[in-house]
Specification:
The complex is a heterodimer of chains A (67) and B (259).
Chain A lengths: L1 H14 L4 H19 L7 H17 L5
Helix pairs in contact in A: 2-3
Chain B lengths: L2 H31 L2 H27 L3 H27 L8 H14 L9 H29 L2 H22 L8 H23 L11 H20 L11 H4 L6
Helix pairs in contact in B: 1-2, 1-4, 1-5, 1-6, 1-7, 2-5, 3-5, 3-7, 3-8, 5-6, 7-8
The chains are: A mainly alpha (67), B mainly alpha (259).
């Protein structure tokens, strides 16, 4: 059990890394893309928009503006 | 080769070069201070485990239907790439210490000396540090090679690009007997982050059912736009940068292996 926990923690750190919000955001963006594309509506723009927002949000959280 | 295949080869080459440089630094540090024999046994054991991981995951990945593969692997690559890019942006803007191979090497030497004298036979410390270093850095190489290669059905190109990078770094490391401090690792990591994020976006969206304008040629737009976004974020953050200074290095705030 402990080994499984260690492996899970390692895989989490390896793929997800420092900010889990990025992983959640990517999964949500992919899901929205699939739904929109499934309705035969152009959906290619969703992921770039999500990436720009997620990256900006994540680095801003890590580097708050100096007061 | 097509533009897409060149993109694949260059991305894998750059990513593997930076990982190989980090692994070589770790092996040199324990080899010089404690035991070359134990360090090499650790390297060999790590390579065997990596080969087993590749043999297990490679065929499993390539047997998946293309759309499933692209959405799963594209998503993973995107998450992975965004983490690289996030760190690179924070480093470039002064919010995270730059990765400094010379400082990491000195840190490795200090830690190896502090662990006491090398044991006769196989020195456990040298073996473990070399194994962990090569395995963890190598796992990133395996991940990148398999995901890039499987998605484009060009695992061969990805594997050759990775092998050239690793052999080149090992040969240079063996020749100079010192960490490869002149490799512009921070810039290369920035570039790799841009490429992983761009390819992850492209494949993830295609796997989810979206169609890019211009099909594969869309990558020629996605990569520069991602680069512009990253550079723009660096410029914005620099206005509020805490100015870590030239003396600040990754050795001081990152673990040696995962820096």
């Amino acid at each position: 059990m402990r080994r499984a926990e260690q492996l899970a923690r390692f895989l989490w750190d390896f793929v997800v890394g420092d900010d889990w919000r990025i992983a959640v955001g990517v999964v949500l963006a992919l899901a929205v893309t699939a739904v929109v594309a499934g309705a035969s509506v152009s959906a290619w723009w969703i992921l770039p928009l999500a990436v720009a927002a997620l990256l900006a949000f994540s680095v801003r959280r890590a580097a708050p503006p100096r007061r | 080769m097509t533009a897409s295949e060149w993109g694949l080869a260059v991305s894998v080459f750059l990513a593997c070069t930076v990982e190989a440089v980090e692994a070589v630094t770790i092996v040199l540090a324990v080899g010089f201070t404690r035991s070359w024999r134990s360090a090499f046994i650790g390297v060999g054991a790590a390579l065997l485990v990596l080969a087993a991981v590749t043999a297990a995951l490679g065929p499993a990945l390539t047997s998946l239907p293309l759309d499933v593969l692209r959405v799963a692997v594209g998503g993973l690559l995107l998450v992975f790439g965004l983490q690289w890019l996030r760190k690179a942006i924070l480093r470039a803007s002064g919010f995270k210490a730059l990765h400094d191979e010379a400082a990491l090497y000195q840190e490795g030497l200090r830690a190896a000396r502090a662990a006491g004298g090398a044991r006769p036979g196989v020195d456990g410390y040298s073996f473990t540090i070399a194994f962990k270093g090569v395995f963890l850095e190598g796992l990133e190489v395996v991940f990148i090679v398999l995901t890039f290669g499987a998605n484009q059905h060009h695992t061969g190109i990805a594997a050759v690009a990775a092998a050239v990078a690793v052999v080149l770094v090992v040969l240079i490391g063996a020749a100079v007997h010192a960490p490869l401090t002149r490799v512009p690792e921070n810039t290369m990591k920035f570039g790799v982050g841009v490429m992983l994020t761009s390819f992850g976006m492209f494949w993830g969206a295609e796997g989810a059912g979206a169609h890019w304008p211009g099909s594969d040629a869309a990558l020629l737009g996605i990569i520069p736009v991602t680069l512009a976004l990253a550079v723009g974020l660096v410029a914005l953050l620099r206005r509020g940068s805490p100015s870590l200074g030239a003396g600040s290095t990754a050795a001081s705030d990152d673990a040696m292996v995962r820096a």
